[in-house]
Amino acid sequence: MDSLFEGLISPALFDALADALLLADEAGYVIASNPAAQKFLGYTAEQIYGLEVETLMPERFRSIHYQHRENFFIRPVKHPMGCGKGMVALSRDGEEKPMDISLTPLQVKGQACVLITLFDASLRQQTENALRISEERLEGIMYHMTERRVTEQKQRHRRGELDALRSQQVAIQTATAIAHELNQPLAAVSAYSEVALHELANLDCSENLRRALQGSAEQAQRAGKTLHELLEFLHQGDFNGDLAIAPIDMNEMVRDAIAAVQHDSHEGFHPVLQLKHDLPAVMANRIQVQSILTNLIHNGVEAARNAGMSVSTAMIRVQTDSKSGMAQITVQDNGPGLDADMASKIFTPFFTTKLRGIGMGLAVSHALAKANGGKLWASPVAGPGATFYLTLPFAS
Amino acid sequence: MMTSSNKVFIVDDEPAVRDSLSLMIEQDDFSVQAFDSAESFLLACLRTPCGCAIIDVQMSGMDGMQLQEEMINRGIQLPVVFLTGHGNIPMSVRAIKAGAVDFLTKPVTRDKLLGSVRAASRLESARWPRLPGSNRFSRCWLT
Q: With an 8 Å Cβ cutoff, is A191 touching chain B?
């Protein structure tokens, strides 16, 4: 051994190097090894001495290696680290060990030899694996975050649309309610004045009285006309082609509305869905139907929660069905319910049973159902809690 | 000259409207009976009465359009004049198709209302021209 490295390297240094080193001769036999190599491969210095290098690799690589070895000695050039990357060593006890290899041609005592440096690659592979896993996980997280952002954006957009629709409808319904309330006394004033005028027709009375009555009838009618113009303006989008309608899947709409109310409300509830399989699509405006459904579900949750129900007992049952040629959606809660008087007034603007709220939600939903060719009504008797029915026309 | 077809029923949930329209129609020699809701009208309407009805569209509870539907279901063939605070074309088309004589908006002028009521009344007389008096009476409103 000492003589072997003469003039090349100190044997002490060869032994002290942390890298596993083997020296093989032109015939492919190991003629020297350092302790790091012995440890890595599981041999003693004596055991490894004289072994053919192919012994130190799994059988499947051996035949190809003979050729590589012959080629190496025909043109012996240094093979740096990396060209032998991903190779496998076979230890004495048969374990396959991932390694990287570098080959350095040497002249030892006039003989062509090769210095083989082995690097344990298991650590590198472990690191690479860990890195790959964490990269994949990161990609997953990024994907998930993007998905979530898209979903959140969609939800924000939908909420924005619903809010805009609601505030617009509240304004319209408020103005409509006021116009209707004013129109009634105007109709009476106009009629009373004309009745009085007619009574005076056959009497001898002052022209001033006649003029005054005529004026009051005309002015009441003029005010009424103004109100009709206002109402026409407010409702111009309702019944003409402005309403964008399309075939929609009510079961999907119900699931969306449940999710939306669950997402929006801080107070939980227990949804029970009884959705009719293969329910044909209805023809309606998606946003308006969504607004009706979320309004009904939200009201139900509030009614149940205000009655002291907990998250686990507050229940909303939503059923979809086909009834007399229309799609019928039933929304039922297990709150205190409605008596007959409340059921008849509940769609009136500004009627409310809530502590907070202006009593426009159901008035708006009622108007929207009607604008979509459907109906919305409440049943005072059908359930333990309040039961609302919504019908919408089928697309075909 | 009061005949049975000179009877006018007013269905409106606003008391001042019922009162003022009753006065107006009575001035034209009709007899008037007023109801404050669709439900109370249907309760009194056990058989097809003679005459015609002026029905408000927007009423709490059963509205005017639903009342018309219910009258058709029950076979009550009474000419109907609709009065509405806020009408629209599809609604009036639907009402007329279902047999309404007219669809008027409030406030309504005397000329328009009486014109429609007279037309409805003529329609009613034309529909039952040769019925013997006894049969007519049996169809008529009993109060």
A: yes
